């Protein structure tokens, strides 16, 4: 099955699906055309919006690509906690001259409708975040000719992915930017995630599925490391966020290498679920008080984030980024793939030289 996945794209580079308008068809198509696997992000879009982007990418490339879906979330948030957080955000709403969003705007992200579209008009690859699809859904996608990948952040989650019948598991380390793809959102576990290399080793011993490694990867030498650790491919998000094809706001792209932002942090401030972003004013002020309430908090803060972006104010935006953000390069996506491949090749040559030298001693 590893070959079934990697045969779709010549090079072991997957462009992470980044929701919120970043992973646009132009970016995904450029990566696929360069020999990697480009991904569209269906999160926060309507089923028709997703379908229109699929049509668009098919007009840009004939190569395989993927589509990522968010799993529906169980109802577990405390209404009172969300109301308290809304009260705390009142000053932000006044500052940006906007209203807070409706926290009850929906929690399934149109999952069933999107899945129906993918079954009616199959794509080469589908991936899933925030949980595991049913065995029936995965089997239906397989019959339609779609390979399926599901994110896991622990070996236990990877076992659940394997039991459900997915074709591969995306192993997401703590270093990853954006939302952690944990299957169950347990606030007591905040900050207890596992680093990517340790997680690859644990998952590799737990399941027989091929692994796609994700988490802070920015250089070809890091891709070499995760391949050597047992992954079949590497998934990079922040590295592609800075490309001209990315749909990220210009302020977001600039912030990646701005000396003002010296670190990232996992926070619930913007969405109610742990997500890694650059530490800015909003994160510092509201992160400690944000409840475990996704997607209620996401809906609540959406107008604030939109207003901050419109004003060009990075201090009020969700500046999602992995721990390697300072290594971002403003290269066209295809050129970035080429550079990563050259670095991967150099790392392999260096490793081979070290091994040969060891044998000679």
From TrEMBL:
Nitronate monooxygenase that uses molecular oxygen to catalyze the oxidative denitrification of alkyl nitronates. Acts on propionate 3-nitronate (P3N), the presumed physiological substrate. Probably functions in the detoxification of P3N, a metabolic poison produced by plants and fungi as a defense mechanism. It catalyses: 3 propionate 3-nitronate + 3 O2 + H2O = 3 3-oxopropanoate + 2 nitrate + nitrite + H2O2 + 3 H(+). PANTHER family: NITRONATE MONOOXYGENASE-RELATED. Its cofactor is FMN. GO terms for molecular function: dioxygenase activity; nitronate monooxygenase activity; nucleotide binding. It comes from Streptomyces antibioticus. This is Probable nitronate monooxygenase. Pfam families: NMO. Keywords: Detoxification, Dioxygenase, Flavoprotein, FMN, Monooxygenase, Nucleotide-binding, Oxidoreductase. Belongs to the nitronate monooxygenase family. NMO class I subfamily. GO terms for biological process: response to toxic substance.
């Amino acid at each position: 099955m590893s070959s079934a996945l990697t045969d779709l794209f010549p090079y072991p580079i997957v462009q992470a699906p980044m929701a919120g308008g970043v992973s646009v068809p132009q970016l995904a198509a450029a990566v696929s055309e360069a020999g990697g696997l480009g991904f569209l992000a269906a999160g926060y879009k309507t089923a028709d919006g997703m379908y229109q982007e699929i049509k668009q990418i098919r007009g840009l490339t004939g190569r395989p690509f993927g589509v990522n879906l968010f799993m529906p979330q169980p109802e577990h948030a405390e209404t009172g906690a969300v109301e308290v957080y809304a009260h705390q955000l009142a000053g932000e709403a006044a500052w940006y001259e906007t209203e807070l969003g409706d926290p009850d705007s929906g929690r399934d992200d149109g999952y069933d409708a999107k899945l129906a579209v993918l079954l009616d008009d199959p794509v080469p690859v589908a991936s899933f975040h925030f949980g595991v699809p049913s065995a029936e859904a995965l089997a239906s996608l397989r019959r339609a000719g779609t390979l399926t990948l599901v994110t896991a952040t622990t070996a236990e989650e990877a076992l659940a992915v394997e039991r459900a019948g997915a074709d591969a598991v995306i192993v997401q380390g703590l270093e990853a930017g954006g939302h952690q793809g944990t299957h169950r959102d347990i606030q007591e576990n905040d900050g207890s995630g596992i680093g990517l290399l340790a997680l690859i080793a644990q998952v590799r011993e737990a399941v027989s599925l091929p692994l796609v490694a994700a988490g802070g990867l920015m250089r070809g030498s890091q891709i070499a490391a995760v391949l050597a650790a047992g992954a079949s491919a590497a998934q990079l998000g922040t590295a592609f966020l800075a490309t001209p094809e990315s749909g990220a706001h210009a302020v977001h792209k600039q912030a990646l290498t701005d000396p003002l932002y010296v670190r990232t942090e996992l926070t619930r401030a913007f969405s109610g679920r742990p997500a890694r972003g650059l530490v800015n004013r909003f994160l510092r002020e509201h992160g400690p008080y944000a409840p475990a309430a996704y997607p209620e908090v996401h809906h609540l803060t959406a107008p604030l984030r939109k207003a901050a972006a419109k004003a060009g104010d990075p201090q009020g935006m969700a500046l999602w980024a992995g721990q390697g953000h300072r290594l971002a390069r403003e290269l066209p996506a295809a050129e970035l793939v080429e550079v990563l491949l050259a670095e991967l090749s150099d790392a392999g040559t260096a490793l081979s030289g070290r091994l040969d030298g060891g044998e000679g001693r």
